[in-house]
Amino acid sequence: MSRPDYRPIQNLTPLVTHERELETCTFCPKLCRSACPVSNAEPRETLTPWGKMSLVNHMAHGSVPVDLTHGHAAWACTGCGRCSKACDQEIPVAQVLQDARAELDKLGIRPPVLNNMNDRVDDAESAMRRSVEALADEPAYDATSPHAILVGCSYHRHAEEEARLALRVVHALTGHRHRVVSSCCGASLTAAGKTDAAAERGRTMATHLGPLSSLVVVDAGCAHHLVSSPVAGLPTPVTLVELASQNLERFQPAHGLGEESVRWHDPCHLGRGLGQYEAPRRVLGRILGRSPDEFAERRERSACSGAGGLLPLTYPEAARGAAGRRLDEHAELGGGRVVTACASSLRMFRKAGADAEDLVRWMARSLGVERR
């Protein structure tokens, strides 16, 4: 029985659109508990998919308070989707928790670290603009081109060299000079639960760019966001990995690698999000002259790096733990280099001390545009 001072949200989105999902998870025997990178790194029942969904369900029915104590766990999710692959009912846990974040945020309930989220995005955009301005000397750059490349905030802030190489690679593959998007697509705001602000950023980006003939997206998270939440006025995004796979004949095998292990890490948004498992393997395999090495947990079952869903902000220990677990598996399989196509995963792996590289660097080496 709910107390009169509780604020049940039974008329809001989580229950109206997700009642079946919430009820199914709440009364499930927790078959997906081992799939969650968060609860694997920080073993607490409330952080399992069952625990997070149950808390949302109880808040929706008013059986527990709608407050940060019970709502915080909604942000203990990277959005990786691995639990859904392990679920017999294929419950979209990440989407339900994302919608719960949005409803809680409207009530002013959010982790304190996200109170200044709009300022964080403003800072990221400022850094992105500076990074884009630094690319003006690139022959592949044209601020007025009808062809655009969205590299992504994380690359511009934490992997600027990869951002530069991405521009060169796209030019080499298409022959077109590109403008580089310097506006936020809204992905991080969506992860924070600020869906209205995210949509506004997307519209602003589209207005700023104007009519485009093509849009290539480098960061897997940005690509997944634009596919999941299309922005009017923007062409259908094509991932850089997809573009490269369509032009395999342009890549030359690398030399001097010997028997060095090069292991591919599936980014969650690229793989489970967009279904692009074969394309990156084809590209990296073409460059290596052999199939890349694999994790034991790969493709649909690939383990998350802990980088998504703002987890490094809301649950930093769990984020580091998820990255550590992934790299422990890498070490057990013989180590070597880890290659991915996600700036956030790249950053997590590098911070953990791994020999990690982005696929775009391998593309640039193969195409002969790494150094100029």
Features:
372 residues; alpha/beta; Fumarate Reductase Iron-sulfur Protein, Chain B, domain 2; 3 domains
Number of strands: 8
Number of helices: 19
Principal-axis shape? globular
Low-pLDDT windows of residues: 1-13
Amount of beta strand: 5-15%
Q: What is the string of helix and strand elements? A: HHHHHHHEHHEHHEHEHEHHEHHEHEH
Helix content: 40-55%
Average pLDDT rating: 90
What does this structure look like?
- With 372 residues, this protein is α/β, with parallel strands linked by helices.
- It has three domains: 98 residues, Alpha-helical ferredoxin (Fumarate Reductase Iron-sulfur Protein, Chain B, domain 2), CATH 1.10.1060; 131 residues, no CATH class; 120 residues.
- Helices cover 49% and strands 6% of the residues.
- The strands form two sheets. Strands 2-1-3-4 form a four-stranded parallel β-sheet.
- Strand 3, helix 12 and strand 4 form a beta-alpha-beta unit.
- The N and C termini lie far apart (69 Å).
Kindly summarize this structure in a few lines.
The chain is α/β, with parallel strands linked by helices and about 375 residues long. It contains 19 helices and 8 strands. It folds into 3 domains: about 100 residues, Alpha-helical ferredoxin (Fumarate Reductase Iron-sulfur Protein, Chain B, domain 2, Orthogonal Bundle); about 130 residues, no CATH class; about 120 residues.
